[in-house]
Amino acid sequence: MSAALSAEQAVLASQYQIPASEYAFFDGSGGGPTTAINPAVTQMLTVMISKPGFSAFFSALPLLGVDGSLAFVTDFESDPTLKGAAAQVHAKTGTFLTGSESGLILNGQALGGYVDAARGRRLVFELVVNNVALTNLNDVLQVFQDEGTIAAMLWRDN
Questions:
Q1: C-alpha pair distances (Å), 136 with each of 45, 74, 97, 103, 149
Q2: How many distinct structural domains can be found in the chain?
Q3: Do 21 and 53 reside in the same domain of the chain?
């Protein structure tokens, strides 16, 4: 694992210009105590656009309101000015919860990727909610909906 993390650090520095001080990876899962600051994530997503494998990477991302972990994220569609954002946000979620049903902490909920905006621009974005005490698991679903609405606003307003 140590050798793999060192190799990953070298690639992120040389090919993506992301210094090791902007993230902390502990294993290959991307979960648990793994962290990355927003500029590191958006830098990686920006550089990815110029990489040979970008088309496949982009095509593999779930679409807002359509498929994958974003299929149920549809609250934004109740606003007619946001409804057109469906399938225009290509993004990946990441969720890290701790505790039990009686005391959950949303350590992190992220949504990051690309918005093909209404005016034709492609935007790179990341939204993150950190360290929120939750009443129940439905609160996590509401965070997904809220992030979807914000992503739809980025689509509409750009």
A1: 32, 20, 11, 8, 21
A2: 2
A3: no
Clarify whether residues 79 and 93 are in a common domain.
yes
Q: Kindly report whether the global pTM for this prediction surpasses the value 0.70.
A: yes
Q: For the chain, give the number of residues.
A: 158
CATH number at residue 76: 3.40.710.10
Q: Which residue has the tokens 């399938």?
A: 87
How far, in Å, CA of 30 to CA of 104, rounded? Answer: 20
Phi-psi region of 138 (alpha: psi -120 to 50; beta: other; left: phi over 0): alpha
The conformational region for residue 127 under phi > 0 = left, psi -120 to 50 = alpha, else beta, is beta
On whether the CB atoms of residues 152 and 85 are closer than 8 A, the answer is yes
Residue 54 sits in which domain range? 38-157
Q: What is the pLDDT of residues 39-97, one digit of tens each?
A: 999 999 999 999 999 999 999 999 999 999 999 999 999 999 999 999 999 999 999 99
Is residue 14 domain-shared with residue 61, that is, in the same domain?
no
According to the model, what pLDDT value does residue 101 have?
65
